[in-house]
């Protein structure tokens, strides 16, 4: 939290004292280049990595005997089934939907003592789905700053997002719901003892960084209002590689832009790479056909095999002297 607050304070103070070009032009360009190069580097590295074991994570019955019902989407054995499983996982978080929670009852009247119980927990699935889809829609909605003229489909999406107009300017539901989802994911790490015990800085930092992006964006829109027209002129200048002077733009905008830039810089080297990484995960992209197809370990170097027949040919006489059983007895000349 202190790191995120320090980033925001530096961006605010720097843009206020005349360093807006650094935070508004140089840092975004560096962040975008680092983001794309870093993501491509990680994806190429994953694509080149061998898969020594067939380890698809399954959630049902594998294909077996004809009278045993197979779970085709949770445990597919065909490429089409794998595509369906990936679609359900990426778009609907199917595996997270089966999330369960464990708790210990201090006294169970049946067992006369403590008992571990398991129960379905859909809250994490719901808020994770809410967070990702709201973040995606907010990201797409910001395309209006990068396009001139703004496409009709984007204007229509904005009108649907703000269909229940509250106040002026129009309240976008995706922004409010994104804030609620981020706060839930953060509170889950703070107030769940077991999760807090295993949480590290790289678990909190992206959540707090996204929280800073959301809060600064909401403040710009509804409280310390920024000249949107001037912001669009400035961003269009960045898009066309002809930056204009960022005069008259609130320091809050540069703080918001700095948070986004830091997130882009951090993305390729963090757990956030699970976004493209899920497509390279052997637990998801491999069919469950280990009973039909032998998976060959690509790490195995070529070997010179020594069969038992060859072994016996080399050591037959010694084995005969030791009285060991042989498939082929020594020749009479060798025996003499």
Automatic annotation (TrEMBL):
Mind listing the GO molecular function terms for this protein? electron transfer activity; heme binding; nitrate reductase activity
> Which locations, inside or outside the cell, does it occupy?
Cell membrane
GO CC annotations? plasma membrane
Q: Where, by residue number, does the polypeptide cross the bilayer?
A: 26-45, 123-143, 171-191, 203-223, 248-267
Which InterPro entries does this one have? Answer: DsrM (IPR047660), Heme-iron_electron_transfer (IPR051936), NarG-like_domain (IPR023234), NarG-like_sf (IPR036197)
Question: Which residue ranges does the record assign to the NarG-like domain?
Answer: 119-275
Alphabetical keyword list:
Cell membrane, Electron transport, Membrane, Oxidoreductase, Transmembrane, Transmembrane helix, Transport
Q: Which GO biological-process labels does this protein carry?
A: anaerobic electron transport chain
- Does the record bear Protease in its keywords? no
* A Pfam family this chain is assigned to: Nitrate_red_gam
Tell me where it mainly resides.
membrane
Q: Reply yes or no: does the keyword Ribonucleoprotein apply.
A: no
Q: Superkingdom, according to UniProt?
A: Bacteria
Report the membrane topology from the UniProt record.
Multi-pass membrane protein
- Protein name according to UniProt: Sulfite reduction-associated complex DsrMKJOP protein DsrM (= HmeC)
């Amino acid at each position: 939290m202190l790191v995120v607050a320090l980033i925001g304070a530096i961006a605010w103070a720097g843009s206020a004292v005349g360093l807006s070009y650094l935070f508004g032009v140089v840092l975004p360009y560096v962040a975008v280049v680092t983001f794309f190069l870093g993501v491509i580097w990680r994806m190429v590295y994953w694509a080149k990595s061998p898969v020594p074991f067939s380890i698809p994570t399954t959630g049902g019955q594998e294909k077996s005997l004809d009278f045993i019902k197979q779970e085709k989407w949770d445990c597919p054995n065909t490429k089409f089934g794998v595509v369906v499983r990936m679609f359900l996982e990426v778009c609907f978080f199917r595996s997270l939907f089966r999330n369960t929670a464990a708790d210990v009852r201090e006294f169970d009247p049946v067992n006369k003592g403590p008992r571990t119980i398991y129960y379905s927990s859909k809250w994490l699935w719901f808020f994770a789905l809410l967070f990702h889809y709201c973040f995606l829609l907010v990201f797409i909605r910001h395309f209006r700053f990068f396009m001139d003229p703004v496409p009709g489909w984007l204007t229509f999406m904005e009108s649907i997002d703000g269909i229940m107009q509250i106040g002026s300017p129009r309240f976008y539901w995706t922004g409010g719901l994104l804030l609620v989802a981020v706060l839930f994911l953060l509170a889950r790490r703070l107030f769940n003892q077991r999760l807090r015990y295993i949480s590290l800085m790289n678990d909190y930092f992206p959540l707090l960084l996204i929280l800073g992006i959301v809060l600064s964006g909401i403040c710009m829109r509804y409280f310390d209002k920024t000249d949107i027209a001037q912001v669009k002129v400035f961003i269009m200048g960045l898009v066309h590689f002809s930056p204009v002077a960022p005069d008259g733009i609130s320091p809050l905008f540069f703080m918001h832009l700095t948070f986004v830039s830091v997130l882009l810089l951090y993305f390729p080297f963090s757990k956030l790479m699970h976004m493209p990484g899920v497509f390279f995960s052997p637990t998801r992209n491999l069919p469950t056909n280990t009973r039909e197809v032998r998976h060959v370990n690509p790490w195995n170097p070529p070997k010179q095999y020594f069969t038992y027949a060859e072994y016996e040919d080399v050591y037959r006489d010694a084995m005969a002297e030791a009285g060991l059983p042989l498939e082929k007895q020594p020749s009479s000349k060798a025996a003499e």
